[in-house]
Amino acid sequence: MTTAADVLRIAEQELDYTESYIDGEGNYTKFGQWYGVNPGAWCAMFVSYCFYTADLPLLLQNDKGFCSCPEGAKRFKWQDKWIFSSPASPDVGDIIFFNWQGIQDDPDQSDHVGIVKEILSNGDIVTIEGNGGGAGTDKVAFHTYAANSPFINGYVHLPYDGISTTTSSSHPVWTGYFYTLTSPPTQANAIQVWQKQMIARGWILGTTGPSQKGDDGVFTQRSYDVLLQFQREKGLEVDGILGPNSWNAAWEALVTSSSSNPPGSKWQDFYNGLSLMGSEIPRKGLQNSNLASHSLTTEPYGDVISFNSVDFVKGKASWFGGPLDQDTSEDEQAALTQELLRSIQKDVYYCAMRWSYSPNSITFWKNRRLLVLNPTNQKAVIVRAIDWGPNPVTTDRMLDLSPQALQALGADTDDNLLCAFAKPNDTTVGPLSS
Hints:
Blueprint: H1 4-12, E1 20-22, E2 25-28, H2 30-35, H3 43-53, H4 69-78, E3 82-83, E4 95-98, E5 112-119, E6 125-132, E7 139-145, E8 152-156, H5 189-200, H6 221-233, H7 244-252, E9 275-276, E10 279-280, E11 303-307, E12 310-319, E13 350-353, H8 362-365, E14 369-373, E15 380-388, E16 399-401, H9 403-408, E17 416-421, E18 430-432
Parallel strand pairs: 12-16, 13-15
Antiparallel strand pairs: 1-2, 3-8, 4-5, 4-8, 5-6, 6-7, 9-10, 11-12, 12-17, 13-16, 14-15, 14-17, 15-18
């Protein structure tokens, strides 16, 4: 756990470090080289380096911290971490911002930044700063300011453990970056931090990453789907964007029964049988008037079997949809949802079966949640019904799945899979744990 003493110890090890000049140009430092901006004004990169090295990355402009004082200060303001008081009363270990024109409480006007080292008995504030002292003498050094100094613009408490007297929340601050589903998916350390917290709350975002529960730092479709459901649960704006409200809620919102039992839980939690409201999971021998166009009256495939003491329909499966499906035209739509099959980018765990629209209409089946299980490895997914198929004459398959669903199941074309209704019907689609 990181304390203020840890950060200050690292900062003090750099005392008297001085910038270098190359061809008459200054601001060359190891901190800029580490951050990736070299040469460059380096007070913010020095602060970022100290916190990053102490295992408390600031996650502001990027995963390492910030290189611009106004940008870093603004992001702290967005996170409701910015504090201004006159006289200033920061804690040891706080980040403190300055403006040399005497402008106060304006993050956009921040010129310089340091770390609070000590509060003297008279209230004076001792800091450790990089890039201070003027041209030719810019180095890491201690500085002292009166608490009522007009140059103090504002300061920020940090989520320390131990000696810090911080009053801020004890979770990582939002980075200032908004994350959502993109192509290709965005990858960042901050995303992994959020994923680990969501996993700690009970969510499972996949099978990758150190925990094999989806903490890989990539904002995938699964991360997007979980974020949407989390936003719905917590009364947030349901926009699929990981911004400050959703970030903070991941640590601050109460863990409810639904958020501790999402997709990602055991498949047994979602099993809902083969019959629902008079409709049936399609299976061999059931009457289905929708088969008339294929000169059939009853479903030809799908056997009822018992697996772990409950009934499933078992049959062969394949995949469809997505940009790689060359058997589907670019303008072909799903029969239930009218989505363009080759362009689906949202809720990509979907399926098609040969549904009967009696006694319930097509509306009953639209986006209906189903549980699909691979009996060889017990991997399972929740999928939504979007289309009717596969063709019962040209194939002997019971079920078509999205490429993502088939992959999550560890299955190949023509493998036998198990199918049943899932509960509840608004649950997030995606992989479950085995």
